[in-house]
Amino acid sequence: MTELPLRNVVYEKIKSATSMTDEALNKSLIKSGLTLPEDRFNKILLDLEIMGLVKVSWLTKDTRRVEVAVQEAEEDEYEKQNRETMEKDYEASFPGVEEEN
Known about the structure:
α1 crosses α3. A three-stranded antiparallel beta sheet has the order 1-3-2. It has four helices and three strands; from the N terminus they run αβααββα. A hairpin with a 5-residue loop joins β2 (54-58) and β3 (64-68). The protein is elongated. The longest helix is centred in the last third of the chain and has 16 residues, at 77-92. By secondary structure, it is an alpha+beta fold.
């Protein structure tokens, strides 16, 4: 069995809880048998944040909150034009109704 990269393991832990403190995350990893040095742990969190997968914010001076980042789906330009055309066609299907500006 191939071992998952540490980044994936950490992300799965965060994803399963949706939100947790960095301390709780570290304890969860230790419980799973993964002991990470603090610098490696911080690097993984930074990588995940740069990739847009998690959001890290400070709760207190020594505690950070780690949560799954909400992904906004990008609207395809073609789909956007198609939707706008359909809306205009729908509005135009009502004869005698003037557009209010």
